[in-house]
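Q: Entry one of two.
A:
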Amino acid sequence: MPNLLTEPIAKLRKIIHVDMDAFFAAVEQRDHPELQGQPVIVGGDPAGRGVVATCSYEARRFGIHSAMTAARARSLCPQAIFVRPRMEAYRKASRQVMNILQKYTPLVEPLSLDEAFLDVTAATADGILAVQIAREIRWCIQQETGLTASAGVSYNKLLAKLASD
């Protein structure tokens, strides 16, 4: 681990972790405006053995989270709207986001459909702050896809991921 007291800031790596907010549910709310502001749960059938893949922030207020049984989610929020996953729609949105990230650096390491690490060390060589790049990325994602993202910045992946939370 670098010694932040003795190592020049310019020599430290600049890593951004980008994480899409409630990704599957956000895509559903974007594509189906009638779902905006509603507690949306993407996953299996609550009458069967379904599981929550993800849910909107409106559903999270009821204590619903990923990997919870759909039946439990239904009991916590009877008014929730359950939506079956549309993986091709999520892959398409993910490709849009990854294309945006590639505009900032070729050093993009996707972790899943909805998150990636970017090494922007070279992009900051001219004095541009990594946090400025992260803000611009979030703005571009929102403008180009209608979705929101969180971003964290640090000199290593672990701290950047923690910062994005």
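Q: Entry two of two.
A:
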Amino acid sequence: MYEITREQSEKKLLKLAQTDPLTGLANRVRLTDVFERENRRSLRQGTPLTVMILDLDHFKSVNDRFGHGMGDKALQHVSRILQKSLRRTDLAARLGGEEFVLLLTETSEKQAKAAAKKIRETIESSPLMHSGETIRLTVSGGIAEYGAHGDSLQALIRQADKCLYHAKQTGRNQIIHIEDAPDTSPACS
């Protein structure tokens, strides 16, 4: 009996250590663990692996106008959309603030672009209500594929982040991958 209780307690502690407490999504620790496992599998099986970074547009104005409690609700709302939009084999993680990372297994950059469009449109068409007022949310993002754009989680996040900033600089509410960037900016810089 003691052994079962101890094992259950260890599992709970491990889950807490790998979960963002506000959104229930994976945190950086779990993202890193899952990436390493999926990366090895991707290499073994020759399947693609893609990272997508999403950042809520103008999130500071939500906090400023409606309060941090409503900002938290917005993050939870987006987290639920992400969880519903992904396959069981994919992973959504919160990096911090209003930034999320999606790890898309067996997904090429082209396939990730289609998934990104669906996610972006779902977030845009799913406003929050607060005291009779509509709070519209949008996201900007970037996509990077393992191999073509980097060979580590950090390299992929860095590349996707460059594309994210390009998306923010060119109008927001869009998710960019390298081929979407202008010819003069092949690295989304």
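A: Comment on entry two: The longest strand covers residues 49-56. The first helix runs from residue 2 to 17.
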